[in-house]
Amino acid sequence: MGKLSILSIALLLLLQRNVDAAIFEKEQQVKAVFEQMETDVLAFADEIERVYQNRCDIETLNQCGRSNFNDCTSTYPNQMCMDSSEMLVSACGSGSNGCNALWDKTQTAVRIPARLANGQGGNPSDDDLVESICYSRLAEPYMIKNNQDGNQMYYGSATGSLRIIPAQHSEVCGLYDPRRRPWFVAASSGPKDVVIVMDVSGSMEDYGRMELAKQSTRTIVETLTVADRVAVVAFSDIGSVVGSIRGGRGVRGLVRATRQNKDRLLDDINKLQPGGGTSFYSGFDSAFNELEYTIEQESTTGCNVAILFLTDGENTDGRNEDEVIDFVNQRTARLAQKDRQTTVFTFSLGYQADDQVMKRIACSTGGLWQKVDDMSDDLVDAMSSYYQLYALGLSSGENEHFTAWVEPYAFHIGGKMGTSVSTPVYDHSTSPPLFLGVATLDMYMNSIEEILEEDASSSTMLDRFVTRSTARCPKIDLTDLQLDGLRFVNAGSEATCTYSNVTEFQGILPERCPFISDLPNNLWENTDMAGRNYGERACCEQGSTAPSNTCAALAASLRAHSSEEVSSQIGIIVGIIVAALVVVIGIPMFFIFVNRRSETKHKKMMRQGSNVNAGMNIIMPPEAALSASAPPLNPDFCQTEATNM
Asked: Phi and psi dihedrals of 363, rounded to 5?
């Protein structure tokens, strides 16, 4: 080898070493950003725990009355119109028209779901919810001091309230429940493999059960993050994995809960139709098969396993109660040998459901069982609250300083790419510690994009968040008494397994404040914006401090234009469907008419057979029919809020 070749190789190696060193330096800078965010959110959680100790003070309760700002009805004290260079709200305009939305960087706002704002003046009537709003108010000075760059900082309580800075108006009022958001569930349950097993037998068509089951399943899927893996099993006489055939090929195992995978799964869930009998065995068998396959392929999270099993009936495949329960226990034992702790959560929907089997299965696997009545919206709450068991277990010392990240996404307000880091908050003065809620910080992705010279939506960026999110597997170790206390709190004494009269709730429910009568009846500082739409509440001219009639009119025009586009699209779709039906039905009818005329004219001729294949479906297939219309509205998940936190 010549001297020139040796020199070239040496230069290439030197260049590669420099490149590697530069990449390493960039990754270290990004790591420092991640670690600083984690340090900050843990400090925020410590502050929430500190102020919680004062929740029962008379001063805390007295000062809480008429001192909170509602995200839909209040005017904020230091509100100003956002600068479009900092953030742009498309619902108020494009920015070029001089319109944007109001916010207040010196104030927090409170959000609560409409179903919980059931008191006079939009106030909550639940004492624990009122308390969470009052004690979180004590953290407001900390939130103001540590929120200088406009990034959102918020605390979602286990009772359903959200306190957030900067204070902004919600586009859609009353739909937001923090407990159903990915950042909340990720921090309160950790990485996990989730299989939802859904009964699609014929009886699910009764009382709207099928749509309720779909809604609940969609809600659970939406709460998952890139730290999780998920599959949905639909069962009747047999069990099958939803979406197992996609693009003409078979798909097996649990998939990572990325935005893309979740969207595909949601679409597949919407297409499910009821029919057939009820085989518990088939449903569980399919679920365990997918879990074992995922483990064999080494594509599992390697953490806890949750099976959520929903049925509205009794087992009809000939197997008795003990056979089904023994089968579930055998398969969970097999997973335990693979170092996977499996918990089965069961839900009986309607008066026909087999409560006994469902409860026994949950009890034998350390899970929870709940019964949900027909014509009730409680199923969404019941199924989406499975995280509570994991939240209780996460409080142990081994899981201290646990944090969770979510996949980079476009923030609803402003549209910029960002991410969120969150951590569970506990009251460590009790044993076991009491789960209070989740503290969260948002971060724009532009600083990381600049360091790495890489787009926030790239696959390599996603890999970083997957690695960061799955770095720790929380250990869940609960006593029978703790489990039964949680069962009692969720579903009453009929749901308990070991202790029929559970009276110890320490670590599950907070102790009652002695001055419960001193809780404020009115939390809101003002309700000046009550009854107004988003444009009238929030849209403003840049540089102003109040809503603008001009910008509000523009916002209304934008909404109307959007509605017209949707109506136009629906009209086009309907037109296409009608035209297709004319083609697929009208043409055969024409030939039938012609054939009948021919038969009348030539009665002695042999009837000719149809040239249409008997197995061919000339009417729109179920999949196409379903995709031709929008899925039913989920009242607790609105697309306009889907990407906001």
From this structure: -65, -40
